Automatic annotation (TrEMBL):
Domain HTH arsR-type positions: 1-96
Gene: sdpR
Organism: Roseisalinus antarcticus
InterPro entries: ArsR-like_HTH (IPR011991), HTH_ArsR_DNA-bd_dom (IPR001845), WH-like_DNA-bd_sf (IPR036388), WH_DNA-bd_sf (IPR036390)
Stated name of the protein: Transcriptional repressor SdpR
Alphabetical list of CDD domains matching this protein: HTH_ARSR
One GO molecular-function entry: DNA-binding transcription factor activity
Amino acid sequence: MRRMAHSLDLVFSALGDPTRRAILSMLLEDDMAVTDVAEPFEMSLAAISKHLRVLTAAGLIQQERRGRVTWCKLQPDSLRGASIWMQSFGQFEAVELDAFELFLARQLGDGPDAPTGA
């Protein structure tokens, strides 16, 4: 159980960064060289390499050296544990967001039918 929790921590931590999510989206298309991954971002190759190390440590990508070029490949199965964990919350009915927003507005006194102070 502790091992799975650590794995989930790594995955969710990796997914918590928008640059890393963008990299994963790019790798959905095909394997890419590190330099190609870095191209659309306005940051150094060293900074991109740090992001790639986080993704690799989480098991979300695999890096492979082919000659002088390092290639990145998506490892979609690594999201399986996180997906199963999130699906366990699917047993609860989805919250109607409009109704929830109205409820909060009433409770906070910001909307129609807001409680009046005594």
